[in-house]
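Milestone M4 deliverable, item 7.
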Amino acid sequence: MALDLRLQVKLSQQLVMTPQLQQAIKLLQLSRLELVEAISQELEENPILEEGIDLQEEKEEEVRSGLEDDFSPIQEKSSEEELSGEMDGVADIDWQTYLEGYSLSSSSNDARDNYEEQEDRPSFESLMTQPRRLSDHLLWQLGLSTVSEVEHRAAVDIIGNLDDSGYLQTAIEELAEHAAVDLVVYAAALKRVQGYDPAGVACRNLQECLLLQLERLDLSDSLAAVLLRDFIDELEGRKYPQIARALKLPVEEIFAATKLISDLDPRPGSAYNDEEAHYIIPDIYIHKLGNDYVVTQNDDGLPNLRISSFYRNALMESKGVDKQTGDYIQDKMRSAVWLIKSIHQRQRTIYKVTQSIVKFQRDFFDKGIEYLKPMVLRDVAEDIQMHESTVSRVTTNKYVQTPQGLFELKFFFNSGINTSDGDAIASESVKNKIKEIVAAENPKKPLSDQKIVDLLAEQEIDIARRTVTKYREMLGIGSSTERKRLF
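Output delivered:
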């Protein structure tokens, strides 16, 4: 068969994603924090964009500037008189006492009148310091110890490899090999660090951590230490009768020793791990006004973008502007305009999706989570005449503040479970019922998954045991054996 080359004309349709469309899709799926970061980056890179001032803020600024113009002579005169009178006694001020008694909410006269009240307030320096971390606390103790230089470096290396809970994540053999130091030095440094406060720090596993804490309490020969050394697996499985038979002791003594172990700290370094709280800012609000629900967008914190008037005028009055500069301004202008349009489109889409959710889930907003209805992305997509993928991007990492609480928009989309009367109930409602059943159970006799199935059947909810197990694990609830509490 002969092969030859030919030119052939073919007509076909193909969907091409322009850079502008890609940017719009990217902005649509960003969370609020990511959107603010993207806008800030664009403000730095695009000189055409600038952050405008709201009309209300602009009016307030005008009023403020007008007041300053009216009273500026009086203020300047009073400031000069006060300055000349106060400069005479500057040398007599005790600045240390002034800083310690300084308060943002009280004047100097109030500070003198309420001296006893201000003594209870934190000092000025305490407001400027950062919380001490676990590594700082251990290095401070190491600095008070008398050790050789090589052991000091080994101890610093060990402290640097501790996690937030205080456990050593790297074997000392590996650390010694990497530092080309004798293993004996690292073993001695590890023992020294384990002797520091808090008790149980720098251990390799939970068993070693708890045993070290018992050693600090002079309980190395206690029954609790025996249980940790020889019956750690049985303790995890709560096989107390089996342990009692093996040690030939009453089960009550095993309970008492287990109670002592439960009072120990499995994460000794957590007390020095002050993580900052990350607050969720809702993207949209749902307010109830009378019998209706009103959807409002949350634009607080989002920069108010606008096109720079300087570059707009430069583009309109193109005299004196060379072609390269003009092309650059036009390119940045198109990018800025498309960004502003994409952000507005994103806000409108979130608004439409939220309105549709309110229409479908009216009973939830009126009565609570038990009345949440099964709903899928297709329901909202058909209602607002958009594609399911668009609805999926809009509802990801977007939060709404409702009269029932703060929820992610994805929360309202869940599968349905049939009830005995033929209706359907949302899976989130079933999860909430499982949570309520577990919360009300006797901790000494926790309910099995089959018993939870029976209790749900009494509420006309037909669900399989494996489904209960799946929902329980999704909620972070342990099995009946793990939930059992003997004391």
